[in-house]
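## tool: complex_structure
## caller: assistant
## args:
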Amino acid sequence: MTSNRIGEKTLKLTAPVYIRGIGSVVGEDEAKGPIKQYFDVLDKDLLHRKESFEQAERRFFSNATRQALHNAGLGARDMDFLVGGDLLNQIISAAYAARDLDIPFLGLYGACSSMAQSMAISSMLIDGGFAENIVCATSSHFGAAERQFRYPLELGTPKPPTGQNTVTGAGATVLSTQPSELCIKYVQVGNVLDFGINDANNMGAAMAPAAAQTILTVLDDLQVQPDHFDAIVTGDLGVFGSEMLLDLCAQAGTDIAGVHKDCGVMIFEGVPKKDSGGSGCACSATVLNGYFLKRMLAGKLSRILFVATGALHGPTTIQQGESIPGIAHAVVIERSDI
Amino acid sequence: MTSNRIGEKTLKLTAPVYIRGIGSVVGEDEAKGPIKQYFDVLDKDLLHRKESFEQAERRFFSNATRQALHNAGLGARDMDFLVGGDLLNQIISAAYAARDLDIPFLGLYGACSSMAQSMAISSMLIDGGFAENIVCATSSHFGAAERQFRYPLELGTPKPPTGQNTVTGAGATVLSTQPSELCIKYVQVGNVLDFGINDANNMGAAMAPAAAQTILTVLDDLQVQPDHFDAIVTGDLGVFGSEMLLDLCAQAGTDIAGVHKDCGVMIFEGVPKKDSGGSGCACSATVLNGYFLKRMLAGKLSRILFVATGALHGPTTIQQGESIPGIAHAVVIERSDI
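## result:
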């Protein structure tokens, strides 16, 4: 049994890892929803001066990272690592941004769970004494993701009711040994779960079982009830996936309905044609760094369980008839005692 | 400055992290080269009973992982994490294997540097007290990689002289707190370097600058000469990239020619039509876990610097005229004092 493990698989940091800077940059549609005032930057140029969606996404990634560094009062040279990824093949947004920022780079792929995965790994690296400051960042872009995973926007393919909308934007967090108002105390790395869903337009259902498993394990390991947290925040289950999560938890005897919030539901609530909610690496990254951490800084929330989920399929596996496996990583964020 | 940093960016583990199990599985062509006898398993079924290259690659990934677990005398349930990735879009080989193995999963993407990246992250997680045993694994497959990055094999497109051949196979290493004959003492996370190469058939040239930077920084940080190591092992620079690496190091006043070995050159040396060498995540993973670690276990080598390089481009960036950025991560492996 590892020295830092609590219960079955939750890991307790030896010392709190502090959140020193936050950044969130979103596109035009994301700035129409009910939490629009929380985002740092609205970037309407979704085509990066008409060059490409991919280049635009890279700019979002860089800008959110620079915003978090600025918020922390630090520069790229102060960062020991950049840890992050995105949805595009070969995580090109993160890799090319890492080239331009010139920070030692650990690229990862956890699909839409990437923000929680980045924060979990980075917290452990800082706690282990391998870094003083790490910037975690993830991005996604509706145009780039749709043409890669489903259909190019130019085809005008309608989405089924369960089809979520990839969030255009990026979020970044600077983690540090330096005390600040918010900190991470626990993390959990998820297992890959597969309930046999094979519809790429119903990813909430593919990810809900992994979210339920991770949330229930954290509650059990910490021996707490759901209301121990002011919010249990999932990344992008969307409207249908969130219902499924509540059902799965209820079947296990745990009612999380009172504290559950889904970033995908929140970001597009009431926005026309986005009924089923948002998705993508940027969904949880922007809503966490935009809304939740700012609400915590304002003293409105004291403790949240952040659980970003990822659907670990690819277009090739869908074409080859495979089902969609899901994963969920967890990070417990609290107001510091300082 | 972080507590574990030596010099500019090399990180010293507080205690050695031990190599407890190794596994290497290769395809038919890889078993024709001069180091064929070192690989654990030869798997001739490159189409996984004619289903697909991608499914075959997944089987290689799982088999190498199981081989390393078997070699360690451990089971999947003894692993705290599976850390790894592959070249395919959405790292499907690693993700689906992680589902089947049911080990908490940290997926990463460092292109062909993924084995060194996995080992570096895992060493730090173990040293930080977050895991007792981690299995690191990466894979690649010639047929799957060619059709994704360049042209489907069915087209019969000839390769230019600089075009390397993706290794079909997988390698895995079990890292542990439990003392054994080999251990990791230092790691280094690389920066992303771009020298403006934009030919997807000349990746050795795109990666050589990153390899040179990482190797020179390790030597400088540890204040040692190249012959401090019995071998400085690069992943898949191939014939042309290796020449470039030696030139770049020589220009910086450091001659590594006497100790440099490249896994890509070694695996296909003398094999017809593979003149420029091997590449892919499996190239460094199989030659490290097959040849080098076995030579170390046999007492023929005492200390190696393992530097796997990755080309962080994607087919989309090539089509959009972008250059190919490279990265190189380092791991120092020694015979233990036990």
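## assistant note: The mean pLDDT of chain B is 95. Residues 53-72 of chain B form the longest helix (20 residues). Handing back to user.
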